[in-house]
Design a protein that fits this description.
The chain folds into two domains: about 5-235, Rossmann fold, CATH 3.40.50; about 270-500, 3-Layer(aba) Sandwich (Rossmann fold), CATH 3.40.50.300. It has 21 helices and ten strands. The protein has helices at about 15-35, 55-65, 80-85, 90-95, 110-120, 125-145, 155-170, 180-185, 190-200, 215-235, 270-290, 310-320, 335-340, 345-350, 370-375, 380-400, 415-425, 435-440, 445-460, 475-490, 495-500, and strands at about 40-50, 70, 100-105, 145-155, 210-215, 300-305, 325-330, 360, 400-410, 465-470.
Length: about 500
Amino acid sequence: MFESAELGHTIDKKTFKAEVQVLREALLEAQFDLREKGRFQVLVLISGVDGAGKGETINELYSWMDPRYLSTPAFAAAPTEEEAAHPFMWRFWQVLPPKGRMAVFSGSWYSTPIQRRIAGELGQAMFDQRIDQINRFEAMLANEGALILKFWFHLTKEDQKKRFKALEKDPRTAWRVTSASWDSLKTRDKLQDVASHLLRLTNTPWAPWIVVGSADDRYRSLTVGKLILDALQKRLANPRELEYPVAPPLSHRNGARDVLTALDINQSLARKTYQLRLARAQGRLSEFARAPEFKQRSLILVFEGADAAGKGGSIRRLVAALDARQYQIVPIAAPTQEELAQPYLWRFWRHVPKNGRVTIFDRSWYGRVLVERVEGFCSEADWLRAYAEINDFEHELRQDGAIILKFWLQISKDEQLRRFKEREDTAFKRYKITDEDWRNREKWDAYHQAVCDMVERTSTGLIPWTLVEANDKYFARVKVLETVCDKLEASLGETGNYASGRKYNAPRR
């Protein structure tokens, strides 16, 4: 894998100067076209051994291109306290460039797994699991149109020693060589083994690795610059449009019975029973949210449902039991221009809560397989692949400690009509009914089919959908709250008072 990078490639100063002049002009032109067309973003990952010239190459790119439209996210191997309180990939989603821009990553999602594997903190199975997660992440970005270029700067152990000595000898660069630099030589062989394994498993067609010999600075920088230019020119000339499904086809259904028609949506609760059970559930939820164990977890609640199904009412009863400083409600509408310039999951990663916090999504990432599918806002290929991408997203959050519950609130078509008319006739509810609600109602059957497909594809064993019979608002609110409490109890390992149904006073009339 590294043999060709050890052949001693060199470029003389005169050739370098002449080629850079042509390269710089072409890079600036390609960067201008990228910005003007704004069809995709470019991610350049610079990785490799210490002393291989990663920083110098990034500086060269900044001198050759327009720095106003470049960014350089830099990540230490160890996350900050804020980053550590979020799922592993959270910090990388925060710095993705928008379409039309380029980011050159100094350190990336590969840095921490490599360092932890070398230090023996990650076993082979966990290391491979992280690699699989990264592959899926990069595949999702590529499917959204991102151009991903990954460079591994290679030096032999002998060349690495020479580089450190040369840097130390020059007063202008001596500061760049630290005790950690020399310590890296002790684990050089281990790095070689770990890197070989990682590069082999993550050398995918959509995001391949390019190993660059880095003994000669001019050769390394010129090689990287030319490869970036070539990739940019090819993508700009031939934009890759995904027009075929990359997921199994939807199953054909016979008969009228499905996960929604099988619901008994007319279940109901008497007002007094509702008040007692609601108060009890709110008390349980309040205690769970204040439990010491919850400080090491986060809670993500997803609310989807038919228009006027009562999502807002259920959310209000739920947050009544929480400290307002502890939760965030995120209402999801049509994406903004800023959000359209990013992969569709980006705007949801921005709101992933840190440990000890709650985020409630009033509509969510499932818009890709519901509204966007039914209304034709994305291609069939886009929404078909979204099922797997959403499952990956949710299970990634769960693996990093998040507790995730998903609710679909279902009402009958007749009940929806009654509620629509009630909203039109009630002054303080008129803001809840729009022309769009009536248009969506005309597509009831199409949405019904999309919901059934969504449940079939994304109701996994670890993160299932909870289907809520919502013709009776009392029943729906209690079911939601009690489901949240039961999940928290199971996840936090609480016993005793919660399980036994500790008595709470019902609210006074």
